[in-house]
Structures are given as structure tokens and as C-alpha cells.
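Data card: per-record layout.
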Amino acid sequence: MTQFKGKVTVVTGSSGIGLAAALHFAREGANVYVCGIDDVLNSKAIQQAKGLDITVSKVDVSDANQVQAWIEGIGKAEGGIDYLINSAAVQTYGDTVSTDVAHWNRVISINLSSCFLTSHFAYPFMKARGGGSIIHVSSVQGHANQNNVLAYATSKGGIHALVRAQAVDAAKDNIRVNSVSPGSVRTPLLEFAAQQVVGEGNSIEETIAEFGKAHPIGRVGKVEEVSALIAFLCSDSAGFCTGADYLIDGALTAHIGV
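The structure for this 258-residue chain is written out next.
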């Protein structure tokens, strides 16, 4: 398929949903640029991207100078940017007391502020193309929460407000802004979460299967399912979709667990 042939696509996050989105867009003809902070994950992404038009770079998305240099380098080389997909994130735990200031700042800067930074620097290059689409990857935790996820949940809820504000402001330039909110999806972050709560005698796989049982659909999601939704929201078929969050959670937030 060549739905996105020649479209310049920028993705943060070189594993999980970010990598799945990068592979999806590249297979449909896009020129894709991905960034990540982890050398091991970046190397794995490069291996999976072989044969596709995907460039992987090491960038700290919480650092404005690094983000600016990366985005502007792409925009100037390509003559514009069509799609921006923000998937970089960290999963952390803590409540009001146990979350210290450094912890809070790190989560907000990576999960939320990075969405502003990439948008800020990419916007002129998207406008130069006559419009485009921005997708921020949020979470069901932006709608309803587990215990002990104060900073993470706040960062994901903040994305929903950011989407609304950006969409209203950007409509005049034909730039659409949306977010997707996955439930439990098999990613390195989910595996990290499983490691934190794995029960005695259980494996990571058994714990992830238990996560899946919390979803009425009976399983955790696949990264390819989320990337397909992201691709739809960037496509011309979603031309009237902007300013909204799209749940992809196996009916998790629709269910009352009583």
C-alpha cells in the first residue's frame, strides 16, 4: 500500500506503539523519522526498519534544544513535515506523598511537555505543507486511574487538554490534532508494569494475561491495532476528525467492575 507515499512523518518513541506506527507509515510509503533515548531500543528499531525509509536518531524529547535541532533538521531537509506522532513516555508510580519533585518533573517533561515541544517546532513545517496531522498517544489513565500513578495519570490527562487547545488554534492552518488513549497494550512499558506487580510463583506472561482479563474483550491490545488507528486519524478519511481523544481499550473504561 502507498497511502502515505512521500509523506514526511515524525515519530517520538523507538519502541512499542511509536515503533509500530513508524513501521506502519513506512510500509505505506512515508518517509519516517523516529527518535528514542535508549541506545538498545534504538538499535532494535534500526534492525526492524531494514528495507524501509526509516531514520532513527537519539534524542531526549524533554530537552528543547535537542528537539528543536532534530525537528528543524528534518523539516529543512524534507521541505516540510506532514505528520507528527508523539509516543515517547515513561511509566512511573507514586502518590502525592511518595512522588518527589524530580520524579514529577521527569514524567511531565517526557510524557506531556515533549508533545508541546515537538508540535511547537514542527508546526511551521506542517503549515508550509498546507496542513497535516498531529497525534499524541495518551492513555486510559487520562480518563480513569489506578492507585499510585499520580504523575503518569496527570501527564496523560494533560494531553487531552493540549489536544483540544491545539486543535482549535491549528484548524485555520488545516492542521488536525487528536489523541489516542490505549488500554493495556503489549509494549515494553506494559512489561515494566507487569514486573512491578508480578505475584509470587507467576510469570510476566501470566501477569500480562491477568491484565487482559480486566478488559471485557479478554486480552491486552496489540501495538499494530493502535498504529492502525493512528494511521486512520492521519489519513484523508479522517479529515473531519480533530480536537478529540479516541479510546482503544477493549471496553476497559466502558465496564463497571462490580
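Known properties of this structure: The beta strands are 8-12, 31-36, 54-58, 83-86, 132-137, 175-182, 245-248. The CA atoms of residues 167 and 177 lie 5 Å apart.

See the next section for split statistics.
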